[in-house]
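Sharing in case it's useful to others searching the archive later.

Someone asked me privately for the predicted structure of Bacterial surface antigen (D15) domain-containing protein, so I'm posting the question and my answer publicly. Question first, with the sequence:
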Amino acid sequence: MAFYAPGQLLSPNLSPSLSSRTRKSTNATPSASSSAIKCDLSSTPNPQSFKSLSKTLAFSTATGFLFHLSSIPSLISPTCNGTGAGNGDFSGGGDGGGGGWNGGHGDEGFWSRLFSPAAIAKEEESPSQEWDSHGLPANIVVQLSKLSGFKKYKVSDIQFFDRRRWTTVGTEDSFFEMVSLRSGGIYTKAHLQKELESLATCGMFEKVDLEGKTKPDGTLGITISFTESTWQSADTFRCINVGLLPQSKQIEMDADMTDKEKFEYFKSQEKDYRRRIERARPCLLPLPVHREVLGMLREQGKVSARMLQRIRDRVQKWYHDEGYACAQVVNFGNLNTKEVVCEVVEGDITQLVIQFQDKLGNVCEGNTQLAVVRRELPKQLRQGHVFNIEAGKQALRNINSLALFFNIEVNPRPDEKNEGGIIVEIKLKELEQKTAEVSTEWSIVPGRQGRPTLASIQPSGTVSFEHRNLKGLNRSILGSVTTSNFLNPQDDLAFKLEYVHPHLDGVYDPRNCTFRASCFNSRKLSPVFIGGPGVDEVPPIWVDRAGFKANITESFTRQSKFTYGVVMEEITTRDESSHISPNGQRQLPSGGISTDGPPTTLSGTGVDRLAFAQANITRDNTKFVNGAVVGERDVFQLDQGLGIGSKFPFFNRHQLTLTRFIQLKEVEEGAGKPPPPVLVFHGHYGGCVGDLPSYDAFTLGGPYSVRGYNMGELGACRNILELAGELRIPVKNTHVYAFVEHGNDLGSSKDVKGNPTEFYRRMGHGSSYGVGVKLGLVRAEYAVDHNAGTGAVFFRFGERF
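And my answer, the predicted structure tokens:
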């Protein structure tokens, strides 16, 4: 005897999807975009989609069993808690970042809606639908055959009665998911007969009956009495992947067959099923879950329908927990043998389609070459692998990092030509290739009696332009011009023009070498020439840099990189009046300004020209655990003077930074889960030999050196050592932390030309400690200056490490 039922894993019109939408931006870097990953669990059923449910999914002989698929977990059931129109977000703090997953759905989950007959029946019902009273005396039992075929009965309650246990089972029993009837529903006699027929042929029950009990208010109470199906005990368990296997055609058995013909029929069916098992592939289910299921079978004794449902739930839970959202248990076979065979359709990817769309969603020809997109896709999302939701999310992040698209969707849908197969569609909407932007701003400062007033009537701002994705290979040209006075921009005009050429060795080269060339002009305040504690205000020295830079970056992983190149620049030191200043300045008691300070340049003229090679290697294996950074990060940077330029400078400047983020407690990972406490250790060493210009000396003090001090307040030196420790404790949606830091010039301040540390009365070393709290992108800190023994509150942007 064989039990058979139709079903289908996915309807062509019902498919989960992942999407990422990015705000348009003129910036070229991926960090300038806001990204989100959405899981769209919407559905648009039509008669054809439900008609397609009649396609065969599995077939079993030797007393097989294919059960009713209902109440299946939604795409990511552990974290689906969204509401509304049927979508949720995977998004992260910061521009272009990513944090965590938070899927959602509306009233009914995707799988539940597709497979549950209760969900389908719910659609057919209408709260305002009229119904007929049974017209019979109250509290009498009515057989299904005695009901009128012309009336619409309202069902007030439904009960399941287990004949074998001789008790009524509760709504938590797994058998309730087999029934499409619901309390308060309105049904005809034909509908109730169809429900009984469905229950009788599903294989769950040896015997099942349906009867009604009249209620005084004219409604019916339904009682379904059953005897659960059982099979002989089993001592082995096998799980196979039947996806992509051609479905066997069910041959109906003629009622007039002789015993010999019936025997041959069952023998033929059993042979076909064994051949099917041999062609099937091993499933992904790990050995520990196999052993757990085998323990369930041995503990139970006889195999029962409830036991098979428990096995189904356990197997599917593992698949869905691991991200295999399309995996589904479709059948159990070999039930009257010593072995239970669990057939799973895992969701094998049969095809990967990349599609470009215009702003209206119409298919169009894209400018980006497909190879640029394909290289960003993880292997788990390619043909021959099983679809995994984590691979889809990784694909979204990778494609979004290209900064070429403002909308990205990853949609798995069923392959109509290959049963159980999945076609992964990637839909892309490209950003405009050419963009330009002008931004202006005015500074507001307190005026008389505290009233706000403009610091200057002269506007400042930036003009920027970008031509991205040249030749469809993600090459780009970027430019920007910034000034603090648009009316007279030559005073402090800063500009940058950059060309970026990724995939230098070809699109499919695993190193992904990127060539960058830029010419620039910038101005920054030098922290080398500032006063120490108690020193009168020191006139600032500005450092202008103009030149050319070219480098090549090789990516070992997405976070670990090696960059090498050459820099040629002209450095000019200026005072606050923009005049060239060859020496540092100080304020005299009389109010005048003396220019007898340390020399600001290597040439002594206030203008240096030099060329040097530069290399940087970064090893970064940090990751986010519920929003907290955990892992290791090492950075080594080297600047080597080439003896070209003013006074033929030849020098070697090197830095090594080691940072460890130690997770102090194991936590469950997932959206909404609390982050772990983290202990951070940080060390930074820098050294220099040769002709070091003063403006390139290492500086001690500041938010990214030793907290509690201003930039450069502790000194300027040729060798530097910084040590820091920080303990981060999560509190609600943020974290508080305590820190201690120390910086030391290792006695090298005197070797800097003119000894600016001594000239401006700085200590050359210092320590600090304090506490802080993270408020979004802002760090609010109270730090104690150990040298002076005083504390102060600081507000800083970004991360210290």
